[in-house]
Write a structure and sequence with these properties.
The protein has 224 residues and is mainly β. It contains one helix and 16 strands. It is globular and about 50 Å long.
Length: 224
């Protein structure tokens, strides 16, 4: 079946309510009436009476950035209008957070979130053993956030008698009450996504869930 780009179903419809909503599988819309936060570089379009500002890391967060080689570079959208966010055609998911159900998200998978949410930048113990990907942000309070995954993610239950081991490049998010550590496996590195030789995985223990990325966006090709 052929599809026309300008078929009615492809047009963005008027916003029904303020806040964060799913636009399509690879984009979200934030109808701003006040303030919203997003990872820098993820805004693809906007309209309305809005202003945008970069957010500073802060002294403590700057130190964490120096240790991990990464940082959560945020921007704020202030005023009244609509903003669309996406990231390299990755799948986007909206998550409701409350005081009973927080979430820890890998920094590179954060898209945008409500200003009402609390967030704390953390690192996994022993993160210096490997490269990037273990810098994360733990969200609490009440509100919504959007995250990305290069494909439809796996949501794996974690129980006290069945810890989960996740490729450090594949982990998207996990329940903040889970205990995290780095685990070395001998001889299975070449069997993991992108692995070779000695492998290091993120070990998650306790009661909760782990969200795992099934793929990764293809790197941009340099133009000839």
């Amino acid at each position: 079946m052929s599809r026309n780009l300008f078929d009615p179903e492809n047009f963005v419809q008027p916003s029904q309510a303020p806040g964060l909503s799913q636009e399509n599988p690879m984009a979200v819309r934030y109808t701003v009436k006040g303030e919203a936060y997003a990872r820098q570089g993820t805004m693809v379009a906007w309209r309305g009476a809005l202003s945008f500002e970069r957010q500073g890391q802060g002294v403590g967060n700057f130190l964490k950035r120096a240790m991990t080689g990464e940082g959560l570079s945020l921007m704020t959208a202030k005023g009244e209008g609509e903003v669309w966010f996406a990231s390299d055609a990755a799948h986007c998911f909206v998550v409701d957070v409350d005081d009973q159900h927080g979430l820890t998200v890998n920094g590179k998978n954060i898209l945008c979130f409500d200003a009402s949410l609390r967030y704390d930048i953390t690192t996994v113990e022993g993160a210096g053993m490997v490269g990037g990907g273990l810098f994360n942000c733990t969200f609490g309070g009440t509100g919504r956030l959007a995250l990305t995954s290069a494909g439809v993610p796996l949501v794996l239950p974690v129980t006290p008698d069945a810890p989960v081991y996740v490729d450090t490049d594949a982990v998207v998010a996990w329940s903040p009450q889970l205990r995290t550590s780095l685990h070395r496996s001998q001889g299975i590195g070449s069997m993991l996504k992108g692995g070779s030789g000695e492998a290091v995985q993120l070990k998650l223990e306790g009661e909760g869930v782990a969200v795992v990325n099934p793929g990764e966006p293809k790197p941009h090709q340099a133009s000839a």
